[in-house]
């Protein structure tokens, strides 16, 4: 028979999966000799067996519970249903991960019409005894029978109003007796059942109810939001009651060993005299700050401080401790690592390390990389957000907060900005033509698209806050208005965007800015010390590069040259090039683009200096550069001096049914080599310029979308020819390398062949994921949300690497590539390059670096450190 | 030192890779004791070393050649440059695979101003000697120095005209001496060099020229067309000359041991008296049929017949033999397997088996599966095609020949057909809306798209001939005309389409029909006997199913249910369904579609009876069913009683950027389960209908596009529920299975998980290839042709399975799937299912069946037999 019940004395802190966090920590505290009320824990396994197989309490389980109960009775000297010393217990849920308030608790179990009298007699406190009983009736009714709490509360309120009481404390024993009577009637009325008088019946019913509460709606939602698996189950803790509500020498409270808001080292908490646990949480009475306890009950206070210190040292982390004082005797009911703000987390980890409690590595493991977002992006203060009017909720695509006037297109955006206004670009979805408008906006809001839609990717790349998929907004770009559930927003109206939480507010909300603290900087330097993987940035604009280096990027993992072609005169020249009828007509735009690109790369190299930099040659399908719609075609035709008819046909001929799978990347390089030649010329000429000034730039030129070896062979030969000719002309030494992006499944299988040509690999996990799943990033939004809701996908694979599929392809590629070149430098430059859980996998794979958007650089730096520690 | 030169007596027929076909067969004939003129072969390896490394004849190679030459001199008793018995040799190319006429040959090498006199004296035939010399000058000039043949021919013609000669035979010795003089002047004039008088110089120069001829343009083109690798190289055969031009008792000829046109068993060939080899080919004189030789030179004829029999028996195949008779002495100069028509190939293989020369398996291996196309599709006779006016050449997408009137859309197509006319649908490209029009057309022609474009796939599926990618056609669908290089074609004009060769002709060409012969049927029955893999068909229309079963399909590997929704009232209901705003509005169209589908499946099952049949649930993106363009939207809005505005918005909201990677297949099944429920209901109800009549239909229901296990789990559960409810209602036994299509790379990696749910797998190699390469079938035409030309791809991976990438994914899927279910039934239903070279790989993988379009079924039947034999 499986052991389903553990005495507290049989467990320890390591047993969280089986005993839940609460049960394991109670056991640990018993081991430490702390004053913990006697009890036992029913395992999470028992819960899952109940939920998935039995759906009732088996005789075996019942007998194990009763054995544990006997033990409790004999050592406490109290007994269930005893007329002299009745045993009362609490029944509490507690799963592996803390899910505060999500599951159910019942206090004072064991009371009935008989034992309530015994308790009154024993404590000489009738009021207290009936207060316990009415609480049990209320909690048991809600939890076991699902009676609405309203029904009990209404009557309680009625009694208080009738007697003009300000608080529950004023209720008399008589009042409470009456209340108990009425509460029992509520049972009969609501569920046609009597309140069960047998304590054992109460106990079994309570255990079942707690088991079932694992699957209640709010618990399910919480788990989905926090990525907690559904098959963990909850443990049930049965513990002897101690009574904070047994008089003025009793009380109950919660305290943190350090400030959860700032991390400062002082006890932070509150308590209530003459109250039971839930009264503090419920907020009916205002609790008092913990330090006032020093005066009221100095002995208990002193003991608590000692215990708090001991627990923090024992767990090597800031603790959140629940305690109860019964007649001046202190009991600890729970301890756990306390939730805290990002700022507090960093301060606490830093302090604990400085205090010598934990090592540098432990300090780093204390932190969640994603928290850094909160530290670095400006935010709306909670107060402000609470009272503001929400317009929409969407996906939090790019963190931060911003306010500005609504605009609907790039032209208006620029016009407003030129007039000194701040703007937020709102569109159904964005396209490359909007990039210029996006770059001048404070935030982007779209009604369509997902976390990796164009708007989301570009916004994150630019470090602009962004909310996408605001499905309830009807954006009428033509009418220049937005219809939302509560009204209409016109162009020029102010809105505020919270990109970290995916909320759009009406009006201009106030913001708080954040600065990198010295604590933060120190911790990040520890991270760099322990890391194996380097962290690079995906960036091409001077602004992004500067930001990323300030954030500690160790190089550039991806410079997307196409982003440089999307604005102003560059776009015109690019269009002229694409639309040219023959190579003679191509010459002029190529020459102009060459000049522009030389300027671009010179600017970039001036920032990156001698840092590693991967430059990807042109990647997107040609038609991305083309005009859409009749009006734009008309204008462009005029500009390029072409007939509209010709232009329309040419644009049409460049259109593709599935551009993502079309004529792009190295395929363009092969069929249309002039562009790559021009780009490499620009890279090499710019680099030569810096080398002459004594700065040894070493560009890593990357050929995208390779699927067959010969693509790489042909293009490498071509590009080397171009590059070496210039280097010879310039008569200098320039170290450049040519590598390839691994983003086509087939490339993974032929990685050995590619490694014969490539001097480095960089995984383009975005495309690789698209092709491995057959999901278009532009379109997957239509079903990926449903998929996540229905749990077909554990996470969005564009956000978190899919280890089973994409990961396996990567493993094959790394193995085969390194078979040919054992020292082959391999990085990742897709979205997941900045995702901590993906980074752990990249560490296992033995990659050399990850690369991500500027604002994710610090997150990745912490994540690579953690990955190195856990390896 | 490497052995680069082999005496004929040192080789044999197995050494083709090293000695080339001609060299190896000459060696084999020497071994057989046949009268072969003395000689030796320089290896293909020597050629490749010359071409890729040395670019000159090394001293080592020269010395090996000279040693072989010495041997030849001593055993023939003739010597180079000898004044009494001058040795003359032929220098001929000969690669591993026959490339007739593609590379160069020089005869009579060794002649010069001195030896020509000796030859005249020795043979007492001055005319003969100078005829040989002028031939050498001409061939050597062309081959070694690249002098245009025109220059020599012009003068020859001039002499003949001056003297009123009808043929070369009338040239006198004096004429020929003058010709030789003038030919030598041509050398000086053209290349400023004398004709080299030294026979050794001649020989070395000739060998180099033959080596180089491996890379001449026409040889390269031939290799590309016939899939011959570029790194094989050609051998060079040096052989003592025998003279068919040494008088009236001499001659030269070519003969087949059986008819290459029909396969009938009789010697088939022709010869010329007093001529050298190239005269027969050149067609200047009309050769005489071989049987007349029996009278003219009975001894030589008899000997030849004996040798022909011997060679055919020895090689166990019909032979193509070159011979020369010198003064009534017969010499065999070459033998090889003769090229033949498809009909002849089948007849010969059948006869050889029946004659006991070869086994059943050998007979099957004699045949090229692709040949069957020629046997089964009607064709234009060669005579007709030669004189017809070509309008365009494109890709031969679907074989066969057809004529008809040009139409530009489905509506016109139907109108013409209703009037009793035959039509050919001509479009820029086709879309699902054209399917009805395609089905009534005799042929399809498009100006865009590739071998797997919509037009190509559907046409092959329907067995309709089709030419795609006719780039030179400007199809103006609005103006209803086609502009081609030679003029304009209007709607209603006749054109003729040769789908086997990818040619479009003007006018209505006459056709020849083909019937399955009894020989063909017998051979196919042999194929079925030896095969391991079954052959199924991809089909859903009664016509296609009937055709396929007549062609021997053993089941249905893919029934595409979406094809059933594209016509007439079905499309309207499907549109009503998709455009419905809520589930209430969906009910009516679902009910109608259910009725239609029950009818569909009943019709199908009535044909397939108890044969295995895989039915794929709806696969394409929803918007494929939607109207395109304002006019169609207007009509549909009227039909469905919706506002145009609403309809346009709804259509727009269903549009996807990359539909191939979008909301389709099982993703629709998950988010929109009503359609799959309806389809399964229809399948099961129809099947029940047949079961009640005693026909045990056993549908295999296939869920497409699965990438994560839970898609399959959820849908399987749902569909089983629907199916089992109906089966219980009907109170019968029905064996149905539920399986999945493996077409997403990720599915291959999780095949073990999928095998836990799936009762069968079917590889969708089209999608799998798309995703493995990242090539959209709709768009890849833009670069795939360039890729094949530049040899980046050995073949179109949609036509021939890519073993390195797609194949490796398939191997992973088979291994993992069978790990869980050792007997898992696995098939292939993509385009490559009918491709012989891909089938060889599927045999290795251990698949259970392949499935292909109806007209490829016999090809696949032969290919699976060959794969089983070669395993």
UniProtKB/TrEMBL annotation, chains A, B:
Residues 57-290, 302-350 form the Pyruvate phosphate dikinase AMP/ATP-binding domain. It comes from the Bacteria. Residues 421-502 form the PEP-utilising enzyme mobile domain. It is an enzyme of class 2 (transferase). Mg(2+) binds at residues 743, 767. The keyword Metal-binding applies. Its EC number is 2.7.9.1. InterPro entries: ATP_grasp_subdomain_1, PEP-util_enz_mobile_dom, PEP_util_AS, PEP_util_C, PEP_util_CS, Phosphohistidine_dom_sf, PPDK_AMP/ATP-bd, Pyruvate_phosphate_dikinase. Its cofactor is Mg(2+). GO terms for molecular function: ATP binding; kinase activity; metal ion binding; pyruvate, phosphate dikinase activity. SUPFAM superfamilies: Glutathione synthetase ATP-binding domain-like, Phosphoenolpyruvate/pyruvate domain, Phosphohistidine domain. Keywords: ATP-binding, Kinase, Magnesium, Metal-binding, Nucleotide-binding, Pyruvate, Transferase. Belongs to the PEP-utilizing enzyme family. NCBIfam families: PRK05878.1 (NF004531), pyru_phos_dikin (TIGR01828). This is Pyruvate, phosphate dikinase. The lineage of its organism: Bacteria, Bacillati, Bacillota, Bacilli, Lactobacillales.
């Amino acid at each position: 028979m499986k052991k389903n019940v553990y005495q507290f004395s049989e467990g320890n802190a390591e047993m969280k999966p089986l005993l839940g966090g609460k049960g394991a920590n109670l056991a640990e505290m018993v081991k430490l000799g702390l004053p913990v009320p006697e009890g036992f824990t029913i395992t999470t396994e028992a819960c899952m067996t109940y939920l998935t197989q039995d759906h009732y309490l088996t005789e075996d389980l019942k007998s194990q519970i009763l054995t544990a109960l006997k033990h409790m009775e004999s050592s406490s000297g109290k007994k269930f249903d005893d007329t002299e010393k009745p045993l009362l217990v609490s029944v509490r849920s507690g799963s592996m991960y803390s899910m505060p308030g999500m599951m159910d608790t019942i206090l004072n179990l064991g009371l009935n019409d008989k034992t309530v009298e015994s308790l009154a007699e024993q404590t000489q406190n009738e009021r207290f005894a009936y207060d316990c009983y009415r609480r049990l009736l209320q909690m048991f009714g809600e939890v076991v029978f699902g009676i609405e709490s309203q029904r009990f509360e209404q009557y309680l309120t009625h009694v208080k109003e009738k007697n003009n009481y300000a608080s529950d404390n004023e209720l008399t024993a008589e009042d409470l007796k009456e209340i108990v009577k009425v509460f029992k009637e509520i049972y009969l009325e609501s569920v046609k059942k009597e309140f069960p008088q047998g304590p054992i019946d109460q106990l079994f019913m309570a255990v079942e109810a707690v088991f079932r509460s694992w699957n209640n709606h709010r618990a399910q939602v919480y788990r989905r939001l926090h990525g907690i698996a559904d098959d963990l189950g909850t443990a049930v803790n049965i513990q002897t009651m101690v009574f904070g509500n047994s008089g003025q020498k009793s009380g109950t409270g919660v305290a943190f060993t350090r400030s959860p808001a700032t991390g400062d080292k002082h006890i932070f908490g509150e308590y209530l005299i003459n109250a039971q646990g839930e009264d503090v949480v419920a907020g009916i009475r205002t609790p008092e700050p913990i330090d006032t306890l020093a005066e009221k009950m100095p002995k208990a206070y002193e003991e608590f401080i000692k215990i708090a210190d001991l627990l923090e040292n024992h767990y090597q982390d800031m603790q959140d401790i629940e305690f109860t004082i019964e007649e001046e005797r202190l009991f600890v009911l729970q301890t756990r690592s306390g939730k805290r703000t990002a700022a507090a987390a960093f301060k606490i980890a830093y302090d604990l390390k400085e205090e010598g409690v934990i090592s540098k590595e432990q300090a780093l493991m204390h932190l969640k990389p994603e928290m850094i977002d909160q530290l670095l992006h400006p935010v709306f203060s909670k107060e402000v957000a609470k009272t503001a009017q929400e317009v929409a909720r969407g996906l939090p695509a790019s963190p931060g907060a911003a306010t500005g006037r609504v605009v609907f297109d790039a032209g208006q955006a620029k016009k407003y900005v030129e007039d000194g206004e701040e703007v937020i670009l709102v569109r159904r979805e964005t396209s490359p033509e909007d990039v210029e408008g996006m770059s001048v906006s404070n935030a982007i809001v779209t009604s369509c698209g997902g976390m990796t839609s164009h708007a989301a990717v570009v916004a994150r790349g630019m470090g602009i806050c962004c909310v996408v998929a605001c499905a309830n907004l009807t954006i009428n770009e033509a009418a220049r208005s937005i219809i939302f559930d509560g009204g209409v927003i016109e162009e020029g109206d102010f809105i505020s965007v919270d990109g970290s939480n995916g909320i759009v507010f009406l009006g201009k909300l106030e913001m708080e800015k954040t600065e990198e603290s010295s604590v933060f900087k120190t911790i990040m330097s520890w991270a760099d010390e322990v890391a194996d993987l380097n962290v690079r940035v995906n960036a091409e604009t001077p602004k992004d590069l500067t930001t990323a280096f300030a954030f500690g990027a160790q190089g550039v993992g991806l410079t997307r040259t196409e982003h440089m072609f999307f604005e102003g005169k560059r776009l015109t020249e690019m269009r002229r090039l694409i639309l040219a009828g023959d190579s003679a007509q191509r010459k002029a735009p190529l020459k102009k683009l060459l000049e522009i690109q030389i300027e671009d790369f010179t600017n970039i190299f001036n920032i990156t200096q001698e840092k590693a930099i991967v430059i990807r040659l042109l990647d997107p399908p040609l038609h991305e550069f083309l005009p859409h719609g009749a009006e734009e075609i008309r204008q462009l035709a005029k500009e390029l001096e072409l007939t509209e008819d010709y232009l329309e046909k040419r644009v049409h001929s460049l259109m593709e049914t599935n551009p993502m799978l079309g004529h792009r990347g190295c395929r363009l390089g092969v069929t249309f080599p002039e562009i790559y030649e021009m780009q490499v010329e620009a890279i090499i000429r710019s680099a030569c310029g810096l080398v002459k000034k004594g700065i040894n730039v070493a560009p890593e030129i990357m050929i995208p979308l390779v699927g067959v070896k010969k693509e790489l062979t042909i293009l490498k030969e071509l590009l080397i020819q171009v590059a070496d000719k210039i280097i010879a002309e310039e008569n200098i030494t320039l170290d450049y390398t040519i590598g390839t992006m691994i983003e086509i499944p087939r490339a993974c299988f032929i990685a050995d062949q590619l490694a014969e040509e490539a001097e480095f690999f960089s995984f383009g996990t975005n495309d690789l994921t698209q092709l491995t799943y057959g999901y278009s990033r532009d379109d997957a939004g239509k079903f990926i949300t449903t998929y996540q809701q229905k749990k077909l996908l554990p996470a969005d694979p564009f956000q978190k690497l899919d280890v089973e599929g994409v990961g396996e392809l990567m493993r094959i590629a790394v193995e085969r590539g390194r078979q040919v070149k054992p020292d082959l430098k391999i990085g990742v430059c897709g979205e997941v390059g900045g995702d901590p859980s993906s980074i752990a996998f990249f560490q296992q794979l033995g990659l050399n670096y990850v690369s991500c958007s500027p604002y994710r650089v610090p997150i990745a730096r912490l994540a690579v450190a953690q990955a190195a520690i856990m390896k």
